[in-house]
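Quick look at the format.
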Amino acid sequence: MTKKYQKLTFIYYIWILVFIIAPILLLLYQSFFDIYGNFTFDNYIAYFSNKNYIIMTLNSFLTAFLITSFTLLWAYPFSYFLTKSKHKDLILLLVILPTWINLVLKAYAFIGLFNKNGTIVGLLGLASQGFLFTNPAFILVASYVELPFMILPIFRSIDTIPREYIIASEDLGASKLQTFRKIILPLSMDGVIAGFQAVFIPSLSLFLITRIIGGNKIITLGTAVEQHYLVTQNWGMGSTIGLILIGIMFAVISLLNKKGEVNGK
């Protein structure tokens, strides 16, 4: 039976080849051509020598880090108390429900809340200057969109900690704070790292929310790729930035996986 199922894995490899490897190879091929279709290395030279692209890359990292940090700040305590709730399955369902709604619909819903006549702006007393098309609005909406992907792995990691560990810690005289710091927090780090990956990596390439909520005031690598493909029609430069973005993502994943292995030991 094992050999029989192993033969079916070729479907998995075909999927990887067609939808992952082939697109990356196409990006690599396209990155060596300029807007006129001439073979060149100028795209890579322009990226690493142009100050604007370097600033854009740093801004993408900063934006992704702020979104991830803000999301983690809300997700960890929520996940911790969720594991103690009697109705955690129902609450977890409510956490997952927003992911079923189209991203565009959620973004446009926030336009109604953040404009000068919006409910939230009125409560915050910002009706005169508005809250839409600002960096805080973008970070808040992006964090809201990514929040379930941070909550789920953290909740699962905390919920699977054996209850006996907590009881043993209390029997040995540890306070709740000591139990959390010495038992719960270290054992839940795998979930934190998984959540960090699930939020930080997509946040590097955000472009739709930057357009709708940020109002083109926030420029990231994702918006640069969109701009080159849809506006300037410079597919070579767009492919170059896309490849660099993929390389950055792989580097972040490798770094976090090594961190997780160290914590596991």
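Next, a different chain entirely:
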Amino acid sequence: MDALELYYVTGDISTSLALNKLNSGGTFFAGPYLDGSGVKQLGNKSVSWVRVRDDHILTVDRMTFIADERFQSFYVENNGVWTLQIKYVQARDAGIYECQVSTEPKISARVHLHVVVPRTELIGDSDRYVKAGSAVILRCVVRGALEPPSYIIWYHGTQQIFTENRRGWKTQLDRGAPDLDGDIHSTIGSLIIESTRKKDSGNYSCSPSNSPPITVSLHVINGESSASAVTSSAGSLFDVEPVGHALCPVKHLVRIPIPRVMYSN
């Protein structure tokens, strides 16, 4: 029994598992058989798709035997290919699927579906504290994707950032370069702010084309503020200038008289 390895990424699209793996070797078959293009000489035999992990029968011919409406079976007569379609693929769909022909003994072929779930992570802390005028680089990394994202969009709050409208701002996309963990399949997206201002505070979202968005909070502190800057664990990703503590001025000085105690014999 041969198995076909098939990798797929989760998303709002569908994938198909096709029965197309077993050689005939030029041998004559009196009944149904499998070759490199599908089922031949099927006759009145039925074709079923089974999920191997729980032996759940998904479809028999074109009929579906699972409550999950994402599963559906198709048959193309001119090439004899039976296809199991899974819409809106999820991580739990990963595993081995078997296509079975109702002969005696049973004829079958297996497909191994690998579902890849991309993830977006921050490089550095999710809260950043910087002094006004400091340069800041916000970075996110996309890991676990079969292909690098075609783009990464940054948002300030709900507003998309267009760097051409912001002086001293720029974005950068590094595809296929090793990240801090040495993963060469990762993509790093950077938002670079040369000189931060108080109004630049807020939530910034990194939104790749092929993985979920992630948010970092930026807190820009004026030099005269009484708060202190918190140095980020990101270290070399951006410079943070510490802000000193300001003391509250004493406006009134009140003298409290000390009573004198007199003793008599």
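Residues 89 and 265 are 100 Å apart (CA to CA).

See the schema section for token definitions.
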